[in-house]
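Build the 3D complex.
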Amino acid sequence: MSMDDIIVRTAKLTKNYRGRPALNELDLELRNGRIIGLVGPNGSGKTTLLKILAGVLADYSGTAEVLGLRPGLETKAQVSYMPDCSYLEDRMTPNDALDLFADFYTDFDRRRAYEMLLAFRLEPTQRLRDMSKGMREKVQITLVMNRAARLYLLDEPISGVDPASRQLILDSILRSYSSESCLVISTHLIHDIEPALDEVVFLDRGRVRLAGNAEDLRAESGGSIDQLFRSLFQSEAAGLRELGATAERPGFISRR
Amino acid sequence: MFSLVLKYEFAAWRRSYVRFLMVIGMVLLVGCIAVALRLPIVSDLAMILPVLAILALPVSQFVLVVVSYYRSLYGPRGYLAHTLPIPAGTLYAGKLVAAMTELVISAVLMLAAIVLTSVALDVAARNMPFSGLRQVLRIIASIPAIGRWIAGLGLMFLISFVANIVSIFFAISTGSEARWQGLGIGGPVLVYVLLYVATQLLTIVLMLALPLGLQIDMTPVVLAEARGVIAMPQLQIVTGNMLTAFWDALREPNPLVSTVGLGSFLSAPLTGVVCAWLTVRSIRWRTSLR
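Done.
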C-alpha cells in the first residue's frame, strides 16, 4: 500500500465545542478505493470529522489533510459532501439543483443525475418545499453521487428514508461510486449499510476506538458489525444501569 | 465563476422577492386609485397605502439582503455555498455586487412609486398629471450650483452605502466564527456594535489628525430663507490644525460657520476596505458551520 493511496490523513486532530472535545487528538488514515463506515454513538465526533474534511469547519488544531492538502478551495473541487441537513433552497426544484451542480462542478454528470432522479420517482419540477425529508435526501444524494469526486463524505444519508427506499438508495450510491475514489458513510443504521462496507472506523469521544477491514472485524468478533457496535458501546448502557436507570417501557428511561 | 455566483444570487432573489414586489405593487396601485378617485373619507385613509408601499420597498430589500447573506452562508444553505469550489473573494464579491444591485433596483422602484403617488395626488387635486413633480423639480433646479451639490452628496451617499453593506457583511461573517458561535445571532450583533464604536473613534481621530477641513458657511441659507427662496451653504476647503478648529468650535460655537475635518470622510472608505478584506479572510479560513 503506497502513500499515494492515502486520501485522508489526520494527526492529533482536535476540535472543541465550548471546551468539550468533539475530536480528541484523532489520528486516522483513509485510503483510496474503499467504502468506509464511520460509526459511533451520538457525540463521538463523526459529523465534526466530516465537516472538517469538507472544509466547512475551521478552528481546529492538529492536522487534517485531504489528498495531501489542508481542506480548502483546492480540495473542495475533489470532495463531494452531503451534510446531515437539507442545504438546498426551499423554492428550488430538483432541476434547478441539477443546473446549479452542472454549472459549478465540472465533474458533475447531469444526464446520469437526471436518470437517478427518475429512478427515485422524484418529480424534477416539484419544489423542494413540497417534498418530504426523505425525498429531499434523495435529491441531495443524487447531486452528491453524480460527481466524479475523489472523496465522498455522506453524513447520515439514509436517516430520513423509509426502509424500503434505503436499499434503493444504497444500491444507487454503490452504482455511482467509482473504485478510484473513497466513500465515507457516517450512520447509525449500521445494519442497512453493513454489506456495502469495506472498512469500518468506530469513533468514541473523538478518538478511534477500533478500525479495520469489515471482513476481519466480523471474523474476529464472530458476529456482524452491528453486533460488534452494540458490544463495544454496551458499557454506556451498563453505566446508565449502574446509575440506577431502568427501562420501564421501550424508549422511556427513568430513574428509580 | 463570478458571473455564475451573480446568476444564482439573482435567481434566489427573484424566487424570494418578486412575489413580495407584486404584493407591494398591488398595494400601491389600489392606494393610488383610491386617492385619485377622491372618495369621501376612503381617499384620505387610502393615502397610507402608497406611503407604506414606498417605505416597504427599501426596508424590505435591506432586510432581505441581510437575512439572505446570513442564511446563505451560515445557515443550512451555507453547507452548499462553502463546499462549492469558488474562491472566497469571488463568492464575497458576487454577493456584494448582487446585494448592491438589488438595493439600487429597490431604490429605483421606490422612486417610481413616489412618481405614481404624486400623479395620483395631481389627479385628486384636478391638476395636470406630473404638475406637482414638475414644481418640485423646478424648485430644486433653482438652487445655485445644484449639480455640484448633487454630485458631491451622491458620491458621499454612495460611499457610505457601500461601506454600510460591507460593514454588515463583515459583522455577520466575523460574528459567525467559532469564537462567537456561543452567542448565536448575538455574535454578529455584538461585532456590529463593536465595529460601530471603532468606526466612530476612527472618524474622530482622522478628523482631527488630517490638517484639512471643510468650512461650512450657513449665511446664504439664512439670507435666502428671509427672501423666501432656497439656497445651499457656502463651502470652502481650509487648511490648518483641525484640533484647534474643533477646540474653538467647542469654546465659542458659531451657528453660522463651522469647520468639519475632511479626514472624517476617509473613515467610511477606509473601514470598508479593511472590513472587506477581513470578511474574505473569514470566509476562506474561519468558517465554522454549526
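The interface with chain A takes residues 4, 7-8, 11-12, 15-16, 76-80, 82-88, 177-179, 182, 284-289 of chain B (CB under 8 Å).
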